[in-house]
Amino acid sequence: MNKVRASAAEAVADIPDGASLAVGGFGLSGVPETLIRALHDQGASGLRVVSNNCGVDGRGLGVLLAAGRIARVTGSYVGENKEFARQYLSGELEVELVPQGTLAERLRAGGAGIPAFYTPAGVGTQVARGGLPWRHAPDGSVAVASPPKETRDFAGRPHVMEHGITTDFALVRAWRGDRHGNLRFRKAAANFNPLAAMAGRVTIAEVEELVEPGDLRPDDVHLPGVFVQRVVELTAVQAADKQIEKRTVRS
Predict the structure, then answer these.
(1) What is the predicted pLDDT for the residue at 243?
(2) How far is it, in rounded angstroms, from Cα 133 to Cα 238?
(3) What pLDDT, in 10s, does the model give residues 175-185?
(4) pLDDT band for position 97 (50/70/90)?
(5) What confidence category does residue 63 fall into, taking pLDDT thresholds of 50, 70 and 90?
(6) For the purposes of burial, counting CB atoms within 10 Å of the CB of 100, is it exposed (0-12), middle (13-18) or buried (19 or more)?
(7) In 3-state terms, what secondary structure has residue 193?
(8) Residue 203, pLDDT score
(9) Is the predicted pLDDT of residue 245 greater than 80, yes or no?
(10) Which of 43, 148, 175, 223 is most buried by its number of CB atoms within 10 A?
């Protein structure tokens, strides 16, 4: 039951080339920075990533992206990462853009064993009709486009069928966790982290504070340890390394 690993490097050592990864975080909030850096040092490439966004230039998943380690991204937002946009538009990166709420539910559904579901989000758009550019050719034309999706009416309202997402591995960050893998997230870090953790077949969690089993009250557990296979305790310096995308202060 002790799921603690000695280091982030040990925890990600068996992630192979071409693996699919669900990665928690939103912008730079709740991003498993230490695990991402360890994976960068490990050298795995051709990764297929599912995450709300792909970090920013030089931080979060942007580290792997800049090194050319990511082959495909399923996400909702591109805007804060110039290298992401460059690779996508030049045909170096395949990107499946998904409405944010739909992406969250696809991860949750995959983790809950639900193969597909219907949602009104995307009806009447290319999300449903198909034709969204997943990959561009070097000349700017569309090399790979999204396929059309099944639609069905419920109570007289059209809905789009979306598939649940499962991945080979998941990387997440939690505020507190115990040796059994039970996790508690803090504030905005509770965005995509629990959902990404559910979707991964092997979920690796970096925790700011490691506690003993029983120290977390059952009501305080946001994600039960059944969804987590490995836990890495952060150092005080790693836990405090929290960047802000756009710092705004009064003049």
Answers:
(1) 82
(2) 38
(3) 999 999 999 99
(4) very high
(5) very high
(6) middle
(7) helix
(8) 98
(9) no
(10) 223
Give CA torsion, residues 120, 84, 59, 27, to 10 deg: -20
CATH of the domain at 109: 3.40.1080.10
Q: Where are the beta strands (DSSP E) in the chain?
A: 4-5, 20-23, 47-50, 70-75, 94-97, 116-119, 133-136, 142-145, 151-154, 157-163, 167-178, 183-184, 200-211, 230-233
d(CA 36, CA 92): 21
Domain extent at residue 75: 4-115+164-240
Per residue in 212-232, pLDDT (tens digit) is: 999 999 999 999 999 999 999
Is 54 within the bounds of a domain? yes
* DSSP one-letter string for 125-186: SHHHH---EEEE-TTSSEEEEPPP--EEEETTEEEEEEE---EEEEEEEEEEEETT--EE--
Round to whole Å and give the CA distance between 221 and 185: 8
Residue 150 to residue 27: CA distance in whole angstroms: 31
| Mean pLDDT confidence for 131-159 | 95
103 within a domain of the structure (yes/no): yes
Residue whose C-alpha is closest to residue 33's, from 221, 167, 207? 207
148: in domain: no
Number of domains into which the chain is organized = 1
How far, in Å, CA of 180 to CA of 185, rounded? 16
Mean pLDDT of the chain: 95
At 177, list the tokens. Answer: 């966790």
Is 40 contained in some domain?
A: yes
Q: How far apart are CA 122 and CA 157, in angstroms?
A: 12
> pTM of the entire structure?
0.94
